[in-house]
Amino acid sequence: MKKILFSLLVMGQITIAQNKTEKDSTKTETLENVFVTANRSATLRKETPSAVSKLTVRNINETKAVAAYEIVNKTPGVLMVNLGNEQHSMSIRQPMTTNAYYLYLEDGLPIRPMGIFNHNALLEINQFNLQNIEVVKGPVSSLYGPEAVGGTINLISLKPSINPEFKFGIQADQWGYKRIQATGGAIIGKVGFHIAGISSLQENGWMTYSDYKKDNLNIRVDYNISDKTRLISNTMWGKYYSDMSGSVNEEAFYNRTYKSTTDFTYRKSDALRTRLTLEHDWNDNASSYITVYHRDNKLGQNPSYGIRWSPTVNPTTAKGEVNSNNFKSYGAIGQHTQKFDFLNTKIVGGALYDYSPVDYWAYLLEMKAYLNPGTPGKQTVDHYEITAERPDVKLSDYTADIFNKAVYAQMSFNPIEKLIVTAGARYDNLKVDYNNALDNSTGTKIYDKPTFKAGANYNPVEFTGVYVNYAQGFAPPAITSIFRAKPATGGTTGKPAEFYYNLEPATFNNYEIGGWVALLKGKLNFDYAVYYMEGKNELLSIRLPDNSTDYRSAGETRHKGVEFGGNYKLLSNQLNIRFGGTVAEHTYIDFKISDSPADALQNVNGKEMPQAPRWSGNSEISYYPNWFPKFRTSFEWQSVGNYYQDQINTVKYAGYDIFNFRAGYEWKGIEIYGNIINITDKLYAYNVSRANTTSSQPTYTAAAPRTFLIGLQYNFSLKK
């Protein structure tokens, strides 16, 4: 049975397999122990020397999430930060950051090409098209390449169902959010298909100027050429437009005055991704696939975070920008998996080629700032008004051709009984041929590096195991950072534009030990990981007093922590207790802020990194009463500890604890459900930050007040 399962699972895809339902509890329990992301092939948990977690189809279906962070945050060691309207940043073995330290995969393939990282990539995901989500914590650059540093999130989509099925649902809350969604699929002869679509709309919400609209469509078609060969087509189309309300000042936050300072900022995205995969099983011990793919993405914005205003220098004026980042990708990836009887050896090897032309421009907006009353130098802005658009004043203007070539291999074997050793390596060559119109320069930037990993699993008895792991991470700077004019240069400053041509790739060395235990006949499961990660040349942004950003890739950082998670089933599986969290510390070891002897602040050596809570966790109690079949209810606790707002460690934000409630009932295929998010109506912010000067004012990314979500869904399945 194990060989059959492993031959079906390739790149996280069960080719023609029934989608699991709550009734398929035995099958679901079996698949929960199989992971595909950490080793690029189906591998049992006890054979995986990594901190890896899986969110199952049941987790996803019962959460009824508006945005992906509601699901992803159930993973121990993960804090996905909600920035509103499905926009987000991330914290996995890193502070809350928008830096290119995370790799987002869709069925094993990166959503973005290397070098064009976007921290909002998951807003393009169709939540109604997810089979499960796998999260690997820590570097996996030896398998997936650059950006797979802090963590890798693989969103595995639904497959055609043996039993023809159809689902249709609607959901809405009291703040003007509503969504319709539909999915369906079947297998007819040798052909299987699955289609899923959602349409979301937010109007007149709790925060002014926070409307958005999102439409997604996913289509998958499988063709069984033979019992050993399959052809799989996947297409994703998405369109997104959102007002960007931005953050609020301290007084507005504590007074719950949820008023945006702008009525013109926005973010929009048009995305198309297609792929065609040919899979072949040579025999029980060998399988291969090749995937060709295409991406077409247009991202435009007038970003609220791009507004630059100083309370001490010309406080009644400000500057903003409009920018556009567009790319296409043409690529192929091939992989072969081979097993040998000698020492139970398994080898996975592959190669990738990606060509992605990109163009990017940004121009200046001149603004007037209308101030709130206050002490000069400590005033805040009530609202901004655009006084002039300046497309003639470019802040960035470049085209580039990005070429990514990579080869990788991983081997695992059993030198002695109960011990599994794994080793892997990858070589990446990322070449950027650019034309920078602002300084009329052309050239080539090359970032190439081999990365390695080595680990071992030891499973002394059936119910417990431990692992050790060493892994390297590698992250070149995003090209949008390289070609951004440095603050106080270019544009209207009168100084020649200077750029970040000398930014270096960040490198990481991660050491960890972890393990798992299953007790009480599998009713109690517990995972843990202890890690220590060193970063060099880490790309960090320095927030200046006018809200502009300066980049540095020099010095050293240290990241260490403990991650844990568990699950306990009681009362004949009627009661399920899930718990998890992380205790971590992120520290500057050697990091220089300024090269100018006149600046009072030279470095932040020994300081804690900002937006880096030492504690975060998510736990949940779920109840499925036998006396009331198909009814469910759950109570969830999300906790985030305190953290420094600035790099010089002067002011902390207290963090937050919030509680959510969910319930649902299904009768004859009709499901009705309701969620209460933030039950206690707590005032809190997802993120709080400030610059390093004493006059700097904090900005708060405010979270929603108590929210009531209700939904109705019809689930139809025709049993064969």
Automatic annotation (TrEMBL):
Membrane topology designation: Multi-pass membrane protein
UniProt subcellular location: Cell outer membrane
The keyword Zinc belongs to this UniProt entry's keyword annotation: no
Top-rank lineage group of the source organism: Bacteria
GO CC term, one of those recorded: cell outer membrane
Matches recorded under InterPro entries: Beta-barrel_TonB, Beta-barrel_TonB_sf, Plug_dom, Plug_dom_sf, TonB-dep_rcpt-like
Location of the TonB-dependent receptor plug domain: 46-152
Limits of the TonB-dependent receptor-like beta-barrel domain: 224-679
Keywords: Cell outer membrane, Ion transport, Iron, Iron transport, Membrane, Receptor, TonB box, Transmembrane, Transmembrane beta strand, Transport
GO BP terms: iron ion transport
Protein family: Belongs to the TonB-dependent receptor family.
Protein name: Outer membrane receptor protein involved in Fe transport
Species per Swiss-Prot/TrEMBL record: Flavobacterium aquicola
